[in-house]
Write a structure and sequence with these properties.
about 70% helix, single chain, 11 helices
């Protein structure tokens, strides 16, 4: 009589064990889906006239305010004491991952094509792996796992090279776009400033992921670290934006797509997604987190093609903000 019950319990235990094993993988796939909606919101908001640097500032202040109560109450007993040295380390972490990288990303879009920037983003995983090896956070050996990492890095670089240099034929749209986004963006192409800023952005992101792993060993409270990064990064971005944007009107946000863009990207991306990435970084390391970036690029390319009706070339794709 106990056999069916025992069998059911063993099945549940097996499913639970599988979920626990692949939980980081599933969470990282979720983050890439979150970036899909980020693409559509930012695409519409920027064409509506939202200043990208103001957007970065507001987005992270929203994230910090949203995450603060969760960090304060849920990690009250486990949160380490914040020393001056640790605060300075978090400030550098915020600078690399928020104020420097994101603002540099949007500046690079002024001087080169979005397709080039998006293609280069996929090198972040390779750069993270390279820096991790140099800093001895990752070990190279002749095991199957070690060889897979090396081969994966080479394949990733080869894929980025093809997507950047090769512009294949336009894929024919299957029908009319489901969503029409009005407006346009101006690009002042400079094949010196553009690539330099793009490469600097990728290096900054790679160092950011690596520094996360280092900081998490001293400050393992992921919710609190997400909150600090958002607030400090938002403050740093505000200083940069104040120097770049001199029109007070640019700081005004109405009850329109600009507001929804800031709220979604602040709460979901800079809040929830950053927290998930920190958790996965602690569990699996920085290289694991960056390996899922090409998946988001593929999702965005397909949806931009089918939903927005954007032209899709074999070898290139739309940009991810």
């Amino acid at each position: 009589m106990l056999r069916p019950y025992t069998h059911t319990m063993s099945c549940r235990g097996g499913i639970g064990a599988i979920f626990k094993r692949f939980k980081p993988h599933l969470l990282m796939v979720f983050t890439q889906f979150a970036y899909i909606f980020l693409y559509f919101f930012t695409e519409a908001s920027f064409k509506h006239g939202m200043n990208p640097h103001v957007y970065v500032t507001y987005r992270h202040f929203v994230a910090g305010v949203f995450m603060f109560p969760f960090a304060y109450f849920l990690e009250k007993k486990m949160r380490p004491k914040l020393t001056m040295a640790l605060f300075l380390e978090i400030s550098v972490l915020s600078f690399l991952g928020v104020s420097l990288s994101l603002n540099m990303y949007f500046v690079s879009l002024r001087y080169t094509s979005p397709m080039f920037v998006t293609s280069m983003i996929n090198t972040i995983a390779s750069l993270t792996f390279l820096f991790s090896v140099l800093l001895r956070l990752e070990r190279l050996d002749r095991s199957t796992r070690g060889m897979a990492k090396i081969v994966g890095t080479l394949v990733s670089l080869a894929g980025v090279t093809v997507m950047t240099l090769y512009k294949g034929p336009v894929l024919r749209n299957l029908g009319d776009a489901l969503i029409h986004v009005q407006g346009s963006t101006t690009i002042h192409e400079s094949w010196i400033k553009g690539p330099i800023l793009t490469v600097a952005f990728c290096v900054s992101c790679a160092l950011w992921y690596i520094m996360q792993a280092i900081t998490l060993k001293k400050y393992p409270a992921q919710l609190s670290l997400t909150t600090w990064m958002s607030l400090v990064g938002g403050a740093q971005s505000a200083v940069f934006t104040a120097c770049m944007v001199h029109k007070p009107k640019a700081w005004t946000v109405g009850f329109n797509i600009d507001l929804w863009n800031i709220l979604y990207c602040g709460v979901v991306v800079s809040g929830l997604v950053f927290y998930i990435q920190l958790w996965c970084n602690k569990e699996k390391g920085p290289v694991f987190v960056t390996l899922f970036n090409p998946l988001g690029t593929m999702f965005v390319a397909l949806l931009a093609y089918f939903v927005l009706g954007e032209k899709l070339h074999a070898g290139r794709q739309p940009f991810v903000s």
